[in-house]
Amino acid sequence: MKYDDWNISEDSAGLWDAIKSGDARLFSRMFLRYYSPLCEYASKFVPDSDAEEIVQDLMVNLWENREYLFIGQSIKVYLFRSVRNRCFNNIRNGRTRERLHRYMGSRMKTYVDDPDYYMTDKVSEAVEKAINALPEKYRETFLLSRFEGGGGEKLCRNRQNTGNIGKDS
To answer: Is the dihedral of CA 150, 153, 156, 157 positive or negative?
Structure first.
């Protein structure tokens, strides 16, 4: 039987034997038949970009090591199981985590590259120093209005003052 006549969906031992012996056209047909479903399956475990890479790596590995591989079950079962295991290895080895860190790092780059991002402590110190340098009543009024949510009426009540909130007496 000519291998070209085989329907690629047939998952027989003869199919793997033909690929194992170096039939590149049959391997190409198998690749085209399973590539998309394997990528879709892998994307249930890892991000799409990792899923494609995992499937491509599997296919390259199959072709390069075809002479040494023994596939004791159907090719379809072997492919899907291999993709699942590679996805789990990918997750365990942290490749997905690494990519997430790189992605988050690039998103945070605008903050990290901003020198003022690191200056918040110095700014806070300067503000605190300026507030402490105010006269006592001004400082109390400022703190009440800015940090304790005090409006005009509340300030007057707290200061027992009707109109001279900031006046130092």
So the answer is: negative
Phi-psi region at 149: left, alpha or beta (left = phi > 0; alpha = psi -120 to 50)? left
13: left (phi over 0), alpha (psi -120 to 50) or beta: alpha
Token pair 């009540």 is found at: 157
Range of lowest pLDDT (23-32, 91-100, 128-137):
91-100
pTM listed for this prediction:
0.52
What is the spatial distance between Cα 86 and Cα 105, in angstroms, rounded to a whole number? 26
Alpha-carbon span 27 to 5, nearest angstrom? 14
Tally of CB atoms within 10 A around 50: 19
Diameter of the chain measured on Cα atoms: 109
Domain boundaries, the chain: 3-107, 116-159
Tokens representing residue 71 in the block:
């596939």
Tens digit of each residue's pLDDT (9 = 90 or more) over 98-131: 766 676 667 666 655 666 656 667 777 777 888 7
Instruction: Provide the sign of the torsion angle of the four alpha carbons 113, 116, 117, 119, taken in this order.
Output: positive
With H, G, I as helix, E, B as strand and everything else as coil, classify residue 33.
helix
Q: Please tell us whether the domain made up of 3-107 is placed in CATH 2.40.50.840.
A: no
